[in-house]
Write a structure and sequence with these properties.
single chain, alpha/beta, Rossmann fold, 17 helices, 8 strands, six-stranded parallel β-sheet, about 60% helix, elongated
Length: about 475
């Protein structure tokens, strides 16, 4: 009876994971989707703690288990409460890395158990060894890579590459897989120490794997590492024959892989090109960095007049909006313009910000209606009938070089075609290039005007001017 109840708990957990993931596909249901999946995870966790038995023995060690749960819950809650929206990508990388570390530690602990059995002459199943080695390799790569990604996103770690680095990386991974494959079929107590060497080299590979990848590719890298963590967790599910752990890992791995593919498609680049091209790193800034002409500034009063008398205004949010924490002020401007009869919508690029969905979450926090958030394809159709486009801190996602400059590192990346609108107003702190490190020709076009300053301060002044129109 106890086993059947535990099975039901796992079934509930698996179903809620699937439902929650489905709900995450739309901003309006994403928050509830998180709660549904979290409820299922809670049921699975407590079902395991109190109902799991092996050879008639329960888990025990409740003091350690609940101490870990309490400490982890407190740390996670405090960090999530305090994190700024601009630092959300770093937090995602950090938490994702913890998942990879957990999967790797599970493999290490289970390998120690296997080593003990081998010393007693017990034969080890090859499938079990495969799960252990995969969990250790993938989990450690995910952990080390996520930590480097975290450091890059918060500016503590710079891009680094050297000649033949990619060949070194490929050589390391082939070596890891070759040794692991050999040990799976020929593991003995005498050569068991190679497992720990594989673990250490996998950590090194995770560092070297992410180091040369530029900042503009971080959304793709985060998605890829997230899929790694899911696969590593699924390996843990195989190890323990735990259905809910297996289901959760497969879902995370599959979702991360699909999101990685979608991010690459949004940038019109292959995954191989992302991993080997170091786009947005030191190599990326060389092209297109020359001065392209003169730009013109616009006075706040003129910008307010143009927007107040427009029929349709499209707002393009970018990382500069997130840095300034200006989402609430932006929503206030939106409501003010609508009171004057102006139609206002938002154009969201798939890789705007520094992680997938960053802008959607940011605007949702300010209670912007989901119906006003247009995806790139839909927004590009609307620009043709738009009077004013207001760009807030976005750069590379509106750079026309992606369409007309074959020498540009971002050439071929789908962009928001804001230049089709009648008037373009760009708010930036300065003329400094964006994350990809290249000049933006849009800023020098005749229909474009620059509105310099912090996004929040500029919007507040713009709101005051619009009220006077």
């Amino acid at each position: 009876m106890i086993i059947s109840i535990l099975t039901i708990c796992y079934l509930i957990g698996s179903i809620t994971f699937i439902i929650g993931l489905k709900m995450l596909s739309h901003p309006a249901s994403a928050r509830n989707g998180n709660l549904v999946a979290a409820a299922g995870m809670t049921i699975a966790i407590f079902g395991t703690i109190f109902l799991y038995e092996e050879e008639g023995k329960k888990l025990g060690n409740y003091g350690w288990i609940f101490s870990g749960l309490v400490i982890g819950s407190i740390i996670g809650t405090v960090v999530a409460k305090k994190v700024k929206m601009t630092a959300m990508p770093e937090m995602v990388s950090l938490f994702n890395g913890m998942g990879g570390a957990c999967a790797a530690l599970i493999s290490i602990i289970e390998f120690q158990h296997i080593s003990h059995h081998m010393n007693n002459g017990v034969e080890v199943h090859k499938g079990l060894l495969l799960s252990i080695f995969l969990g250790a390799i993938i989990g450690s790569v995910s952990f080390a890579g996520s930590m480097i990604a975290w450091g890059k996103l918060n500016g503590k770690i710079k891009d680094y590459s050297y000649s033949a680095q990619q060949y070194v990386n490929v050589g390391l991974m082939l070596g890891i897989l070759a040794i692991a494959g050999y040990l799976i079929f020929n593991l003995t107590p005498e050569n068991a120490y190679w497992f720990y060497i594989i673990f250490i080299v996998s950590l090194l590979y995770g560092v070297l794997f992410v180091m040369p990848i530029g900042g503009a590719d971080m959304p793709v890298v985060i998605s890829l590492l997230n899929s790694f963590t899911g696969v590593a967790a699924a390996c843990g599910g195989f190890l323990y024959d735990n259905k809910v752990m297996l289901t959760g890992g497969i879902l995370v791995g599959a979702a991360g892989t699909l999101l990685t593919i979608l991010m690459c498609k949004a940038m019109n680049r292959s995954l191989k090109n992302v991993l080997l091209g170091a786009f947005g790193g030191k190599k990326g800034g060389a092209s297109g960095s020359t001065e392209q002409g003169n730009y013109k500034e616009i006075f706040l009063s003129d910008a307010a007049t143009i927007m107040a008398y427009a029929q349709k205004v499209m707002i393009v949010p970018g990382y500069g909006l997130a840095v300034a924490q200006a989402q609430h002020t932006c929503h206030e401007l939106e409501k003010l313009l609508e009171e004057k009869g102006v139609e206002v919508k938002y154009a969201i690029h798939p890789v705007a910000g520094r992680m997938p969905g960053h802008m959607n979450v940011l605007l949702a926090e300010a209670d912007v209606s989901y119906d006003k958030l247009l995806e790139m394809e839909e927004a590009n159709e609307e620009f043709k009938t738009t009077d004013v486009v207001l760009i807030l801190g976005a750069n590379d996602v509106v750079n026309p070089a992606a369409k007309n400059d074959p020498s540009s590192p971002i050439y071929g990346m789908p962009i928001l075609e804001v230049e089709q609108a009648k008037t373009v107003i760009v708010n930036k702190r300065s003329m400094k290039p964006g994350y990809a490190g290249i000049e933006n020709a849009l800023f020098f076009q005749p229909k474009t005007s620059m509105l310099f300053g912090d996004a929040k301060a500029a919007l507040q002044k713009l709101i005051a001017e619009v009220k006077n129109v």
